[in-house]
Every structure is written in C-alpha cells, then in structure tokens.
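Lab notebook, design round three. We kept the backbone fixed and only want residue identities now. Task for the bench partner: fill in a sequence for the structure below.
Input structure tokens:
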C-alpha cells in the first residue's frame, strides 16, 4: 500500500507549474536603475537579460544581443 504524506483531496489536479519567485519575472536581477525624469526603470540580469518598466509592475523583456551576464545599468545624461 502506498502511503501519502497528505490527503489526496488536498491536491488541485491537474498540477500546473507557475514561475513566481523571484518576482516580477523570475530572473536573478543583478542591478537596477530608475530615471524619474524619463519614468523608466531598467533591470539587468543573468544570461544577458534586460527588463524595462514604466510603472514598476509590468516588466517587459528587451534584447541585449548577448548571453553573458550583465553586471550593471546606468542612465547617461544627454547634451552635456
């Protein structure tokens, strides 16, 4: 007889995988920059991942052109 550690009725079948940690997108964020003047936040992560957000809730993936881990992000002033 197979012993179950919890009642079978406690499991919601079918099981669904949902990536939820770490929020908001599952990548290991290495650095983040926010520009209040532009209303833009940028996060860089492992494997060349870049994410941008205007509201810090919805993060959109962007292309970096590399698979190397990105280490930092910064905004540069224009016209100086």
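Proposed sequence:
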């Amino acid at each position: 007889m197979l012993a179950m550690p919890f009642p079978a009725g406690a499991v919601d079948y079918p099981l669904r995988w949902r990536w939820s940690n770490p929020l908001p997108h599952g990548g290991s964020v290495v650095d983040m920059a926010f520009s209040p003047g532009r209303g833009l936040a940028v996060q860089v992560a492992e494997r060349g991942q870049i994410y941008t957000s205007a509201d810090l809730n919805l993060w959109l993936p962007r292309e970096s052109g590399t698979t190397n881990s990105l280490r930092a992000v910064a905004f540069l002033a224009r016209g100086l």
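Keep this in mind before ordering anything: The chain has a mean pLDDT of 78.
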